[in-house]
Each structure stands twice: as structure tokens, then as C-alpha cells.
Design goal:
This protein is an alpha+beta fold. It is built from 9 helices and 29 strands. Helices cover 19% and strands 42% of the residues.
Length: 566
């Protein structure tokens, strides 16, 4: 019976597109039925579009199953949202649904049930992912938070230079993987701490800490868009916001913001107000005042996130170096590069103006306000644009810091949940040692690792020899890769370059890696260095590694005591 249905569907497609390859059409129907459990009659539209695209001709919409439904716009199948233009229609793409919010909206004077939310491309991959907003005009029951779906027949909408997807009434949504995320009511207020963990539409109650006018350049370069940026806070935290519509509320105003959207810029969530957002004054006599919230929103270096704006931080400025350069437009620029520390870590600072601090005054404790955070090679950089953002403090809010040995001990699981950090130390168990430990060759131009004397950027080059070890550590709650360069490797092995070469000559590269496994697997390792946390996980660039000796008898006693096995 199934074969008869497939053959009937194949004949229908061939009647629409005579030049189509019969075997290819049959394979498509079989694939839909076996992989996605979609019967031929339901897969007809998708197969017709694919065959139409391959044949390069438009199918005639004469069959019962396709009458009035075929589109004359050529099919455009893409894998990434970046491949789409502002005018693209009849798109096929596989995405993950991050949020889905059904609403009733007035359209041309009539109430209409629609839905909107956020989706993410590259749902099966582990690399970079891009998120867009979408609007579902049907709405489809197959769109649920956490689900991976294939959307057929959607189109791009562009408004004020920002692109989103329209899932039209004629579009088809096929579920490829069911979602497991917990559904929450987006109209129920969340704390700011809870909202920062969400994606898509949220409702919050918070007090405005700051608000300032700004502008955004359109993507096509045709002009700018006036916006308002600022920060809003409650007792659980603070969150930057971006209003695309006029926003006249002053600092200190308590607001309820309904149907705003959480979007992420690099590592940082941001609250966006759109045309559908409802902003109203809220009254709560027990809500913290603006001064209290402003002080509680001051962050430490350990809390810095790439892409954050309007950041206030208190830190000790250790150094400040003037650097002049010529930009791409031929203009001479001056930047003051600084080093910041506080009890939680250290980072860099870039000041694009003379802040009036001389070398003789260093080190000095400063309060930096409305700063921007950018990361370079995983190291947070606090960016200052105007001198009035820098306030000198007479007293340190902490005890003296040992600058020469300023290393912060952090659990590996805490590092995995935080942003990239410098000057950290962690202890975890070695669970894997890579085969490529030993001698590697690097490009002399960019320092990338070579493969068969070939650099991904500079092509065939004469490489520079280097030493590297790679392994994975785990503390039972999180794991991370560890990269150990030449100096810490030689120090750990208690040898020099000549001795290392003799060791490799004797054991070979594989034998060397095997000796590391025998020495380290299942044992604890202390790693000092800097951590880089991104979408692909956590990596630690080690400055020092040290095997941790564990007292087996004491460890066994502690385990029995912990689990009540005396």
C-alpha cells in the first residue's frame, strides 16, 4: 500500500515536471517517509519544490494536491541565515526554535491569532550560530520552544535594517526533533536574573538606572536609526536595554515591561523594546531605590562579559601606555592601553581619550562608568570613550593586592559558567590526553598550526617548530580543554629543549603521548592561566601546570564520612 502511494505521488510530480528524474523523485518520497515519517501525500509540496529547483522550471499547479498552492518564486534552500537577503522568499531552512509566543494582534482592524519568537540556525552543528526573530502568521502547532524544524516557504522581512523571518500561512513546518524545554508564560513577570537566562519574549518589573539617546547605522548604509540605550535593575541584577521606539522615562522610574525580547550580543543578554512592547509605570513601595540598585549593579572583573554596555566597575589601574596609530581612513589616532586588577581577577582597558592620569599616579583606584566590554583572544577589555567616565577614588575598597602573584582559585564548574577570565587557577582530573602532544609546526606569519606544511590562511609555508601538549580535565560537573605551550611543558617535564628532543627521539610522538597518559590519566592537575569560554565550550591556556598529590588514605576517609559509610 505504501509503495502504491509513493508511485502515485511520483506520477503526480512527473505530470507537473516532465523533465524531472524519476529515480530522484522516488528517492525523495522514500526519504521523507523513512526518515521523517511523512507520507507521500503530505510530502508532495516539499518534493515538488525541490524537484522544481533542480529542474530550473516552474511546475504547473494542476493536480488536486497542489492546486492554488504552488509558488512561482524559485525555491531557495539555505543552511545559514547569513545566506539570506532582504528580498528572499520561498525559503527552506532547518532551525531550532528558541522561543515561541502566541498572541492575539489586531491586523487591519480584526483580531488575529499569530505567534512570534526567536529561532537559531545551524541546529545540528557545534560552531557559530545566528539568531533571528520570526513571526508565524498561521500559527503552526509544530513550532515549540526547543524543537528543531524545517521551515518550507518562509520569507525574509526587513524593518529598520533588521531582518527577521515570516512564516506565512502557506508555509510548511516539519518537526525534525521534538523540544524538551520547559514552557513558561511570557506575560508573567520574571526577575532580571531569571530573564537573563531566557531567550525571546519576557515580562519584567525593574527600575531604570540610566537612559541615553543613541543611534544605529543601517546595514545598507542609508542612514541611522534613533534608539535609546540604558540599564534597568531589580534586587537580583541589572540588564542593559535597547528601545527602538521613543522612551522618555527617567532614571529612578519603576516600570513594568511586558512583551519585551531578550537578545544576545556576543556573550551578553539585552532587553529589546519593540512595537508590541507594553511599558507602564509600576508602583511598589517595597522596591529598592535607584541608589541602592545602582551600587548593587557595579560589577567585578570576574563578571565582565564580551559585548556588555553601560558597565560600571571599580578596579585598580596598574599601568597606562599611550599608543599612536593610523586607522584605515588615514587618520591618526591615540589610544591609552591599561591594565586593571581587582580581588577577582585582571583584564585590559582601552581608553580612547586622555583621562588625565599620569604614570607617577599609578597604581590608582578608579570607578569606570558606562563602559563597553570587548574581548580580545578571550581577555575582557574595558573600553572608555570619554574622560568623564573615569572617576578617581581616594580609598581602596579592598586590601592590598599582590600584583606579582595575583592568581584567583576558581572551581572548574564555576569557570565554565562564567565569561573568559585571566589569572585563574583550577584543579580537576585529567580524563584525556591528545595524540598530538609533542612537536608541532606553526605558520611564521600568523602562528596557526600547520597541516602538511600548509597554513589555512597563508598556504604553503616553512613552519616554525613549537612544543605543545593538549588534554581534557573534568571536575565531575564540567570539563574543559587545556592547552600547554612550550615553556610550561618543559617546566612540567623538568627538562630543556635538548632533553625534550631526546625524549621524543626515543619514544616517538605517540609513545610520548602514551607516557603522559600513564602518568596523568585519572590524576588531579592544577592549572594556572587564562580561560576562554564560548559556544564551543571552555579552553584554558596554561601558564603553569602541576600534578596534585592526593593522600589516598585521607581521601578514602573523607569519602566514607561524606556518604555515611563509617
Amino acid at each position: 500500500m505504501a509503495d502504491e502511494a509513493i508511485e502515485k505521488a511520483v506520477k503526480e510530480v512527473l505530470s507537473q515536471i516532465p523533465d524531472a528524474e524519476e529515480d530522484m523523485v522516488r528517492e525523495e518520497f522514500v526519504r521523507y517517509q523513512s526518515e521523517f515519517i511523512i507520507p507521500p501525500q503530505d510530502a508532495m509540496r516539499s518534493v515538488l519544490r525541490k524537484v522544481q529547483s533542480k529542474a530550473g522550471v516552474a511546475a504547473a499547479a494542476t493536480g488536486e494536491q497542489t492546486a492554488g498552492r504552488m509558488q512561482t518564486t524559485p525555491l531557495k534552500k539555505v543552511e545559514r541565515l547569513a545566506e539570506l537577503g532582504g528580498e528572499d522568499k520561498n525559503i527552506v531552512i532547518e532551525v531550532k526554535i528558541i522561543s515561541h509566543n502566541p498572541v492575539t494582534q489586531a491586523v487591519r482592524g480584526r483580531d488575529r491569532d499569530i505567534a512570534f519568537g526567536t529561532l537559531e540556525d545551524n541546529p545540528w552543528g557545534t560552531g557559530d550560530k545566528v539568531r533571528w526573530d520570526y513571526k508565524d502568521w498561521a500559527p503552526s502547532a509544530n513550532l515549540k520552544a526547543g524543537a528543531i524544524v524545517r521551515i518550507e516557504g518562509c520569507s525574509v522581512n526587513e524593518y529598520q535594517g533588521k531582518r527577521s523571518l515570516n512564516i506565512n500561512q502557506s508555509s510548511r513546518v516539519v518537526v525534525l526533533q521534538e523540544g524538551a524545554e520547559t514552557v513558561f508564560d511570557p506575560t508573567e513577570p520574571l526577575t532580571i536574573a531569571e530573564a537573563m537566562e531566557k531567550d525571546g519574549m519576557v515580562t519584567i518589573v525593574g527600575r531604570v538606572i540610566s537612559a541615553r539617546e543613541d543611534s544605529i547605522t543601517r546595514r545598507d548604509g542609508s542612514g541611522t536609526i534613533d534608539v535609546v540605550r540604558g540599564k534597568i535593575a531589580d534586587d537580583t541584577g541589572s540588564l542593559g536595554f535597547l528601545s527602538w521606539d521613543p522612551f522618555t522615562h527617567q532614571a529612578g522610574t519603576l516600570l513594568k515591561i511586558q512583551s519585551a525580547t531578550i537578545r544576545r550580543f556576543r556573550d551578553t543578554p539585552e532587553l529589546n523594546f519593540g512595537r508590541t512592547t507594553k511599558v507602564e509605570i509600576f508602583h511598589d513601595a517595597n522596591f529598592s531605590d535607584v541608589e541602592t540598585l545602582a551600587e548593587s549593579s557595579v560589577v567585578t572583573i570576574s563578571q565582565l562579559r564580551d559585548g556588555a554596555k553601560d558597565v560600571t566597575i571599580i578596579a585598580q589601574l596598574q599601568s597606562l601606555t599611550e599608543r599612536k596609530f593610523t586607522n584605515a581612513e588615514g587618520e591618526e589616532k591615540t589610544v591609552y592601553a591599561g591594565q586593571l586588577i581587582d580581588p577577582t581577577g585582571q583584564c585590559k582597558s582601552s581608553m580612547w581619550c586622555d583621562v588625565g592620569i599620569t604614570e607617577d599616579e599609578l597604581p590608582i583606584v578608579v570607578r569606570l562608568e558606562n563602559a563597553r566590554i570587548r574581548a580580545w583572544q578571550g581577555i575582557p577589555d574595558v573600553t572608555i570613550d570619554n574622560a568623564n567616565q573615569v572617576i578617581r577614588l581616594e580609598q581602596k575598597p579592598w586590601q592590598d593586592i599582590n600584583v606579582e602573584n595575583h592568581v584567583i582559585e576558581v572551581d572548574l564548574s564555576e569557570l565554565a559558567k562564567s565569561g573568559s577570565r585571566v589569572g585563574i587557577s583550577t584543579v580537576a582530573t585529567v580524563v584525556s590526553v591528545r595524540d598530538d602532544c609533542g612537536i608541532i609546526w606553526r605558520c611564521p606569519e600568523c602562528r596557526r598550526t600547520l597541516s602538511d606544511d600548509n597554513c589555512q590562511v597563508h598556504g604553503d609555508v616553512v613552519g616554525t617548530r613549537d612544543i605543545r601538549m593538549r588534554m581534557v580535565i573534568d571536575d565531575g560537573q564540567a570539563s574543559g580543554s587545556v592547552i600547554i605551550g612550550s615553556e610550561p611543558t618543559l617546566a612540567f617535564l623538568d627538562t630543556d629543549l635538548s632533553g625534550f628532543e631526546d625524549m621524543l627521539a626515543e619514544k616517538g610522538q605517540f609513545g610520548f603521548a602514551q607516557s603522559l597518559r600513564e602518568r596523568l590519566l585519572g590524576r588531579q592537575l592544577k592549572v594556572d592561566g587564562r580561560s576562554i569560554v564560548d559556544d564551543q565550550g571552555m579552553m584554558i591556556i596554561a601558564n603553569v601546570i602541576e600534578a596534585v598529590e592526593v593522600d589516598a588514605v585521607l581521601a578514602a576517609t573523607e569519602s566514607r564520612s561524606k556518604w555515611g559509610l563509617n
